[in-house]
Amino acid sequence: MAAFEHSSDAEQDSPGEGRLRHAPADHPSLPRAKVGVVLVNLGTPDATDYRSMRRYLSEFLSDRRVVDHPRWLWQPLLQLVILARRPFVSGEAYRSIWNEELDESPLLTITRQQTARLAERLEAAYGDRVEVDFCMRYGNPSTDSVLRRLQARGCERILFFPLYPQYGSPTTATANDQAFRTLMRLKWQPAIRTVPAYYRHPSYLEALSASVREAYDAAETAPEVLVASYHGVPKRYLDQGDPYYCHCRQTTRLLQERLEMPDEAIETTFQSKFGPEEWVGPATVERVAELAREGRRHIAVISPAFSADCVETLEEIQQEIRDAFLEAGGETFTYVPCLNDREDHVTALEAIALQELSGWL
Asked: Mind listing the pLDDT tens digit for each residue in 259-296?
């Protein structure tokens, strides 16, 4: 199977490089035309010390997709007040879940593993015509460095794959924005496609439901309620047309259908509220405590919006939210891990990638 029609324009001097047909003898050699696939996740600090955390949080919280208050009002508050203390608090949270062996966050470790497993599959099918890599919206490896690296390796077409099943402007959109910023600075832009929301994709739903079944089977006491906890957003985002809240609700409904659960056995909640304004709800930390007070002593919590376990799941859910439930009278708290690099999750990522690569391979 030919990689591309235009690959015939190069005469191959070596397995990876070629000289343009009819080009002058001193024309630089060019890499063979390839397709790139880039998995994209939110980001991670390089370390847990104050400076690393401040640098990461400053980049994250300065993003207008994340906090869209006027810069003249927000930046002084962020730089002089919030970032004076927040790096210490966030650093402590990251230290509680840090991968000490590799000296990196679990999000970075897991995203690398997902990338390696997807690369194995695509390279087995398409050989060296496909390059698979990953980047972070905030922190390293940066979107700009990865896109430039792939272009240098000959990727004239790139599939940009934000690992967010539900579309959100502070997640999917800002990841795509960053890719487009790189394109704006390139003399020779690769063709690029972005992967849309995939919360309805059958392979994703199958992996998600299988993870719940496995967690329930392994639980010593069967959970009475499954709490599907999503990262929250300000309510005005919904009012302004962001579909994230609706995508989350639909994900829960589709998961419920696959698991054949009654309505009272599954709920949708939102976590990680930041700032004083109204956010979509109910809040996970408050709702799990209410469930305990209502007599639900055994619950499970899953995070369908996260493709990899991170500080919001490993620290916030498994520590803060778990404690809120137990302190309110709950007895057993079952956490359903993110899909991470599960075999069925990699199968889902492969299916989605191949669907979006149609016509390129």
From this structure: 999 999 999 999 999 888 999 999 999 999 999 999 99
Domain total of the chain: 1
Instruction: Give the global pTM.
Output: 0.91
**256 found inside a domain:** yes
Report yes or no on 47 lying in a domain: no
| Two structure tokens written together for 346 | 């990699």
Residue 4 has pLDDT above 80, yes or no: no
Candidates 60, 38, 45, 68; CA nearest to 242 is: 68
* Residue 327: domain span: 202-336
Q: Can you name the residues that pair with 19 across neighbouring β-strands?
A: 11
Query: Is residue 310 a part of any domain in this protein?
Result: yes
Q: Which long-range contacts (CB under 8 A, 24 or more apart) does 140-148 make?
A: 140/44, 140/46, 143/40, 143/175, 143/178, 143/179, 143/181, 143/182, 144/178, 144/181, 144/182, 144/185, 146/38, 147/38, 147/179, 147/182, 147/183, 147/190, 148/182, 148/186
In a domain, 66, yes or no: no
Class of residue 171 by CB neighbours under 10 A (exposed 0-12, middle 13-18, buried 19+): buried
CATH code assigned at 223: 3.40.50.1400
